[in-house]
Amino acid sequence: MLDLLLVLVLAVHLLTVNVAVAGPLFCLWLDWRSDRHGDGFAAACSHRLAAQSIVSLVLAVLLGFISLGLLWMAYPDAVVRGWSPVPARRWWFGVVEILFSLACMYAYLRWWQPLGKTALRRAARYLLPVLATTNVAYHFGFLFAMTAVMAVRPELAAEPFDFLTLLADREILARFTHMLLACPAVAGAVLMSIGRRLGDGTIGQDAGARVITWGARIALSVTCLQYVAGLYLLIALPEAARDRLMGGSVASTTVFIIALVATAALTVVLGIASLSGAGRREIGMVHGTLALVVLLMVGTRHAALAPLYAQSSETQSAAEQADADSRSSSPGEDPTP
Fold it and tell me: Which residues contact 213 (CB under 8 A, 6 or more apart)?
């Protein structure tokens, strides 16, 4: 039951992270369209998405703490092994980075008009979402990938922590790439919903349909790229975890197959929405299928790695016990002169 709750909370956490990371860049693009083409509807969508990005970042932090607590309750040794090598200063600096990203997006919303009167001020306004996105994606995306990998690879956790060296690790890079591509897919689905809600108002349905199509096409493009990124991640996983997904465990393999089928269904739904438009029903199907894909993928990863959490803990305990036994059995100095 604890594992199921962990998967559910972690899936919602990742969805909020995706919006918080990609949302500001979508705002920048919509803002640029508003200035370049006089598209007032794009400006309204940018405002709405910026506000949702702020809320998503706050929720992501809260759900992240809850996920960490659940993981600690289920696999305390794995949490210690994955998180303890990271210097404390990085976590304190992470708090500053979250506050900085929130401040950037708040300034983007609060001083929208004053920052648009001159070209220089407009450039400053464009810079704020970029800083908010890169700040969160680079630091936390890589850092959490590192802690997850070190939790199941004791030999990596035993080495001195070097952020730049760990960036070159194949599994860490694969995890980060997979997460990064998921961000515009989820943000694109959110943009579809914003386009529908604002399009039903006074601005016009044609503009809303155009934004819905943009969101669907962006989400479809990155979802297709996820097939390659997912294959790369599968290859980069530890051999024991990969074997469980490829037939070594009936449960893990079944969940993995269902997740792949759901991903294919998401591709079809997004393709229909990007070509022929989407109404309330089609957008609801996109959101529901996307949420199911994220939930199943998180469940697949957890089913593959959960045994390694416990196994690596037992291996480490056995190694420590063997080391203690060897020391106690080694001959000491004879106290008799």
Answer: 273, 274, 277, 278
- Picking from 247, 243, 260, the residue whose alpha carbon sits closest to that of residue 299 is 260
Per DSSP, the residues of 218-278 read HHHHHHHHHHHHHHHHHHHS-HHHHHIIIII-HHHHHHHHHHHHHHHHHHHHHHHHHHH--
Q: Which residue carries 């900085």 as its tokens? A: 100
SS3 167: coil
Q: What is the dihedral of CA 254, 256, 262, 263, to 10 degrees?
A: -160
Q: Which residues does 89 contact at the CB level (< 8 Å), separation at least 6?
A: none
- Which of 249, 285, 292 has its CA nearest to residue 269? 285
What SS3 class is residue 162? coil
Token pair 């940018």 is found at 46
Angstrom distances, CA of residue 213 to CA of 29, 207, 273? 15, 10, 7
Q: ∠62-258-225 over CA atoms, to 5°?
A: 70
CATH numeric code, 2-317: 1.20.1630
Q: Domain spans of the chain?
A: 2-317
Report the pLDDT value the prediction gives residue 333, as an integer from 0 to 100. Answer: 46
- Select from 190, 224, 215 the least CA-distant residue to 277: 215
Identity of the highest mean pLDDT range in 20-29, 111-120, 308-317: 20-29
Of how many residues is the chain composed? 337
**Tens-digit pLDDT profile for residues 73-92:** 988 888 888 888 888 888 88
Token pair 């508003």: residue = 34
Query: Is 311 a residue whose pLDDT tops 80?
Result: no
Structure tokens at 246: 């490829």
115-120 long-range contacts, Cβ below 8 Å, gap at least 24? Answer: 116/35
Please state the pTM of the whole predicted model. 0.86
DSSP for 72-135? HHH-HHHHHHHHTTS-HHHHHHHHHHHHHHHHHHHHHHHTTTGGGSSHHHHHHHHHHHHHHHHH
Report the C-alpha gap between 265 and 293 in whole angstroms: 9
Q: Please state, in angstroms and rounded to a whole number, the distance separating the CA atoms of residues 190 and 9.
A: 19
